[in-house]
Amino acid sequence: MRKINFAIILLGAATLGSSCKKFLDINQDPNNPLQVAEKLILPPVEVTVSTQVVGGFNGTNAAYWMQQLSLNQPAPDQETYRILPSDVDNTWTFYLYPNIFNNLKEMMAEARKSGHNEYMAIGKALYAFNLAITTDLWDKVPYSQALQTPSVMKPKYDNQEAVYIGIQQMLDSALYYANKPGSKIVPGGDDYIYQGDMEKWKKFIYLMKARFYLRLTKAPGHDAKLQADSALTALSNAFGSNDDNATVPYPGTAQAESPWYQNTLPGAGGVTMSKTFIDFLANNNDPRLPIIATKDAAGGYSGRVPGDDPVADPTELSLVNTFYAGASSPLFLATYSEALFIKAEATFRKQGAAAAQPVLAAAIRSHMDLLKVPSAAADAYISSRPALTADNALEQIIYEKYVAGFLSIETYNDWRRTGYPQLQLAKNAFVNYIPRRWPYASGEVLTNPQPEQKVTTADRVWWDTK
Amino acid sequence: MKKGLFLWLFVAISVMHSYAQTRTITGRVTDARDGSPLPGVNVLIKGTGKGTAAALDGTFKLPLPAGGTLEFSFVGYATQTVTPGNETTLNIALQSSNKSLNELVVTALGIKRDKRTLTYATQEVKGASLVDAKQNNLVNALSGKVAGVQITNSSGMPGSSARIVIRGITSLTGENQALMIIDGVPMDNTEAGNPDGALSAGGTVNRASDIDPNIIESINVLKGSAATALYGSAAAKGAVIITTKNGRGGAGNGKPTVSFSSSYSFENPILPKFQSKFAQGLSGKYVDGNNGQLGSGSWGPNMDTLKVNGVPVPKRDNVKDFFRTGHTSDNNVSVSGFTDNSNYLVSYSYLKTNGTMPNTDYSRHAVFLKYGTQLLKNLQLNTQVNFISSDNNRIPEGNSLAGPLWTIYSAPISWNPKPTTYEDGSQRVFRAARNNPYWLLDNVGLKDKTNRVLPVINLSYSPLPWLTITERIGADIYVNKTDYHENIGIIGSTSPDGRVYNRTREFRQFNNDLIIQARKDFGSWTTDLILGNNIMTNYNDNNYVQGVALSVPGLYTMANASNVSSTFNYYKNRKVGFYAQASVEYKRMLTLALTGRYDGTSVLSTDKQFYPYGSASAGFIFTEPLKMSDNAILNFGKIRVSYSKVGNDNVAPYSLTMPYTKQTIGNIAFPFNGQNGYQLTNTYAYPLRNESVNEFEVGLETKFFRNRASLDISYFDRKSTDLLTPGTPIAPGTGFNSASLNAGDMRNKGIEVVLGITPIKTKNLTWEIGLNYTRIKNEVLKLSEGLNYIFLAGFTNPGIYAFANQPYGVIMGTHFKRNDQGVMLLDDNGYPQLTSDIAPIGNAMPKWLGGITSTLTYKGLSFSFVLDHKHGGDVLNLDNHYLFFYGTPKVTENRGTNTVFKGIIESTGKENTLSVPLSENYYRNTFSSADETSVEDASFLKLRQVSLAYNFGSILKGTAFKSLVVNVTGTNFILHKNYTGSDPEVSLNGSGNGQGLANFMAPANHSIIIGLKASF
């Protein structure tokens, strides 16, 4: 009896041992897919671009430094130029490289394999758009060695000139794919920006080419006129009306609210209009003021002096109005008016102030149209603007672009490139200058030490020469 | 059976027909405590010197002359003599001796061993002292009692979690807490945590809190990996072995013993101190929050002079008014009994705590049933089931605008928080962007409910006297539901229209052990061999449904939400282990032991699933060969030494692949605009192999003055290598910002001292003192190649980090400018300056821990206390970080007074002599902005427990009462702290890694408890 019992136990143990391998083969994740179609990768990328990058820390930072908005917090803070490597970490360490670039890379790998040219075009366009944001903020960045796990675990940096060459090539490549005949599977509602409309994507790509040509007006080895010429050529195929605007729509329902609605909620710490911006508009009797800003507690328009001591109740000042900061406001990635402002500047650089004058008027008007300013008021404003001269044209154009580009990250690029609008240093400034770049992100400094990281926020990116 | 009957008849007839003949007596010796067999008991025929020893299953057999007397003796047990009449079968239950020299302790796999033969450090805590500790959470009941163990309670919220770490931190980001074993079966002790994250919502309870201390006979803490190697991977962090009571504690002969205990407590919060002079406002100018003006600061005018329309504004103590006296009632009734063959225990407890914050409570029903019976002569069945239903109502803690402490601790003393709403239903607040604290109480809540069952079936078969086969099946099954709601009108949350979420966690863990144990004496050698197999499977289903934006106010149903999203995740992992242990003891003085285990796990790479490990150890009782056991000074001394290596699979399932996951991006939930979306994981998955803990341990156990004093000292050096670190940061330019890989080594060197003294021991008066001391030096030896530090918990700035070549738990944050010598560099006006980087500003790791327990008993009266000391270690008190800015902490009351900051003026390099005011501007813009000003020393000296009890035992003789004890206990009196918050024993991160942060956690309590215990 006992012997039999033993035998059963031993046999049981032996059977168990032999089937162990299979017994342990239960480590397949039932919860998440290892492969998904392009139409599932694109939506989160576009939302990351819109909510986290253009309308995220990057957007608020540009609005504070460019004194469109003000943060009712004690100095030193973001507004007063205290920007820590940890402040910019999410943008680099999460949003740009893994969530945008790497997801676009995976999406394009799938699209290339399946011959889905539309996704290739969108992928390249968005990649170039965000790569420019990255290098504009950080100058030298991983590009040629990026996204090569596991062979390159510490990507070296490319200089900005090489990155900009890459950006233009990538946009050309995007056009190549956009011009190829439609594939079996095409983007639709998963493309929040253009619903898969490739004609509009092509216009966007051309606009980006123009934007980035003009970016290099001061870049070493680049001639402003030639850059302007290239920009004008590209613009001829870019946006033709506000219908072409690249926007991400937000329904405004719960968990679908617009970024600037989120950025300006009371919980964000008291985000008000800046006195600098309010005063600019008020002094010019700009009819857009009541559309852009709310009335203050006294019934007028008032902004916060940048860097001033906090007021007890920030809601007594003018806040951002619902055109830009409503729960269902769209987020603008690029607008027709930007195209016209680029055109105005390029025209001025190439042909002079007089030629630029009507283009500037059209640019202002296109923004007023967008804001539904009555045409009489628009006319009155446009006619009240000084005539362009060789001396004032750039200032006038960039100033108007600064107003029309309210909450756009392009204001910071244009300010660095042209010095306009002229801004006073914020009160209680943490450093005695307006920073000209971001510090490298804390996560990058930790994981990928590179000699290029020894910079201060006073250092300039390659295209930002004195 | 027939054969047995025949034999019995034969024996019976033989006995009847013999005069003064020798007959054979058979029997079994068991432990009176729990009925388990006692192998090795000496069975002697009195006056002859002849006898035998009980076998592994407790049985014995020897010839006894008629009228002879048997003497049963065993170390640690009272000697029992029996003169058998006509019976030839004896069942002897030995009572443990109070004067125990040695004792049986429960070791790995529930195997009892004589402490004499142990070759590693363990420390036992009796169940009674756990009950006396009066803690809802079992983990907290161990505080201050065990050397080598660090326990940290996280907050004063009912149902707060507590962390238990044995012999230091051994894993960077994986589990560092001890394995919990209940009656041989592993038990889950995870903290489910808040779905919103500990940082911004607080924690939930750790599951060990489900265990009712009333049912515990003893807890044995296995510290080193030599002790736990048999348990395998899971116990590489030490093990807490819980042994429950059984019916043997009741009356014999099947008569039931009924025990009843009841206690009631009064708990009061330990509150931080606040300034009581200055009203709401800025720059001395009053902001009238009572009349609709808004302002976050309490930098207004002095209350003594403040008048509105000629009427003084009443000064309020909003903090004190917010809290209430908490109460806990704890009632337990149990019935137990035993016969020769079986024993039973039925226990029911109900615990209910009403927290010191309104609308918070914790309750627990616990039913425990245990039945043991001898099915056949050599087949013992023990079954038990523990059913627990716990219910926890809490409000958010931490860095959450939905938590009321933020606006209670920052409420101006001039502001009346009531009423909470205006006529239009909107909140009445004193400042923008924050909620009214009382509004939150009425409109925000979290309910955490758990139903849990822990069954164990244990079958022991002893086919031969020296052989026992044990089959043990145990399970841990629970459903944990967490329901949260925020009403319409909340400020600063996901949606101003509120939200609800329901999370359901279904946990099922099945554990099977088959253990073959053989024990045989060969002359002076006692050998013990164990072979076994373990299979453990764990299923964890996690469902989460969130509804955002409610339609009908106050209706907290999913159907009432306008945007519903959900995730359903299923996890499964399995481990298989084969193990063996061999130990030999020579002449009760020298023990050698070897253990080996071969584990397979589902969570590692397929070619690295199996890994072997083991330990070798020896113990030598040097007082034996020296024949010192009667020595008046040193009567016992043992040295032990061990070396062990334990493999571990400390990583979650599915860590080997790189899936796409559905994420919420910022505030945007998918599907968004009608489109679903998936994002590639940010974690690059390398193949994974097991991590290892190598430990060398040496110890000395001594007893002095005929056991009146004992001293145990252990030294250990444990090195953990190849640490499984799933969140290791990698260069984001790779497209991933972290990798799961084996990276990092850590070392813990430490010393543990346990001293026991009985200075007085007379018939009526006994005084016992216990002292424990722990000093552990932890060092992170290295991280992934080229990496200087990794983030553990908190905010990136500030946060808790692990730095290479430093102790675990570096606090990093913003700081003042200093030179290389650490001298503050001041600005031209003589004020400190902020830098534009973050740097280490503290470390949460304590220098040493110590505890003293003392019990003084005079007849029926006893007085006892537990003192607990933690020395060193920092905590970042983020309450202060915010409150310094608002101007409510006590220190800001000195505003306007002058000081000379120590340091040198940066521009001149000269020593500062400028006397400058501690201005509002300084507090708001400089002092509060540097995280270093919120780093505080977390040292404490606590009277964990002080108790006075009277046992009416002697008076009750002749009544139905067997015993009646009344007691008064006080708990958690902080005798010393340097901390400005409530209690430096606090953790924003709950029981998780990354200790050392505090942020609007419910304040700790001290309590007074009245209790009654009776049995009849």
**Low-confidence region ranges of chain B:** 1-20
At CATH level 2, the architecture of chain A is Alpha Horseshoe
Total number of helices of chain B: 8
* Fraction of residues in helix of chain B: under 10%
Radius of gyration of chain B: 31 Å
Strand % of chain A is under 5%
Biggest sheet overview of chain B: 22 strands, antiparallel, barrel
Q: Calculate the mean pLDDT score of chain A and round it.
A: 95
Topology:
The complex is a heterodimer of chains A (466) and B (1016).
Chain A lengths: L1 H17 L1 H4 L14 H17 L2 H9 L3 E3 L17 H26 L2 H22 L2 E2 L14 E2 L1 H19 L19 H18 L8 H12 L10 E3 L10 H5 L7 E3 L1 H9 L5 H4 L29 H4 L5 E4 L1 H16 L1 H18 L4 H10 L8 H12 L5 H9 L23 H6 L19
Antiparallel strand pairs in A: 1-5, 2-3, 4-6
Helix pairs in contact in A: 3-5, 3-6, 5-6, 6-7, 6-8, 7-8, 8-9, 9-14, 14-15, 14-17, 15-16, 15-17, 17-18
Chain B lengths: L1 H15 L5 E10 L10 E4 L5 E3 L5 E7 L4 E5 L2 E6 L6 E6 L9 E3 L5 E3 L7 E5 H6 L16 E5 L8 E5 L12 E4 L2 E3 L28 E7 L2 H4 L10 E6 L12 E13 L11 E2 L2 E2 L20 E2 L2 E2 L5 H5 L3 E13 L3 E13 L6 E16 L2 E16 L10 H5 L27 H7 E21 L2 E20 L12 E24 L2 E26 L10 E26 L3 E12 L8 E12 L12 E15 L11 E2 L17 E2 L2 E3 L5 E14 L4 E13 L2 E6 L8 E5 L2 E17 L3 E18 L6 E6 L4 E5 L6 E7 L8 E2 L7 E10 L4 E11 L2 E11 L2 E4 H9 L11 E2 L4 E2 L10 E2 L2 H8 L7 E3 L2 E12 L11 E15 L19 E2 L6 E11 L1
Helix pairs in contact in B: 7-8
Description:
The complex is a heterodimer of chains A (about 475) and B (about 1000). Chain A is mainly alpha-helical. Chain A has one domain: Alpha Horseshoe (Serine Threonine Protein Phosphatase 5, Tetratricopeptide repeat). In chain A, about 50% of the residues lie in helices and about 5% in strands. Chain A contains 19 helices and six strands. Chain A is globular and about 80 Å long. Chain B is mainly β and about 1000 residues long. In chain B, about 5% of the residues lie in helices and about 50% in strands. Chain B has a 22-stranded antiparallel beta barrel. Chain B is globular.
